[in-house]
Amino acid sequence: MITIEIEIAVANLFGLRKQSAILTNLSWGFGLDYEADLVIVTKSGYLYEVEIKVSKYDLIKDKHKIHNHKSNKFRKLYFAIPKNLIDCIEHIPERAGIIICDRFEYDGNQFVKAEYFREAEINKQAKQISDVELFKLLRLGTMRQWTIKRKLVKLLNKE
Fold first, then answer.
1. Going along the chain, which residue ranges are E strands?
2. DSSP letter, residue 47
3. 92-122 b/e with 16+ CB inside 10 Å = b?
4. Per residue in 33-57, pLDDT tens?
5. Which 3 state secondary structure label does DSSP give 102?
6. pTM surpassing 0.85?
7. Cα 120 off chain centre by
8. H/E/C letters for each residue in 54-74?
9. Order of strands across the sheet with 36-41?
């Protein structure tokens, strides 16, 4: 299972089309000391961080990061992992929720589905974002979209 498959499954879990705005790889433009793999903006104006790990090595290595995913910008922290890493959850902080991702087949196609395994603790220090912060997040998210489109055009032109 690769990161992008987990990103899509988590976006579906959080209701990408219904209730959330979801940004990928947020860091420098929002004043974080580290990169958040996914940032969920809820309808009520809170931010959730989702850290994606695809191997046991990734989980173990993450435990040694100085920031330890502690930021008062985020109301909740989740780790999204493939189902085969369920026996490695001791490497995930206790305060973090856990999202398990697993493959399934539908109509001859392979998909990845995400499900909650453990709910995240609420960080009561995190406040709702302001309209100024929301606009900054939206601007950063659209910047990433254009970067991805440029990369896609380069790939298509190579074929």
1. 21-26, 36-41, 47-52, 76-82, 97-106, 109-118
2. E
3. bbeebbbbbbeeeeeeeeeebebeebeebee
4. 778 899 999 989 999 999 999 999 9
5. strand
6. yes
7. 13
8. CCHHHHHHHCCCCCCCCCCCC
9. 21-26, 36-41, 47-52, 76-82, 97-106, 109-118
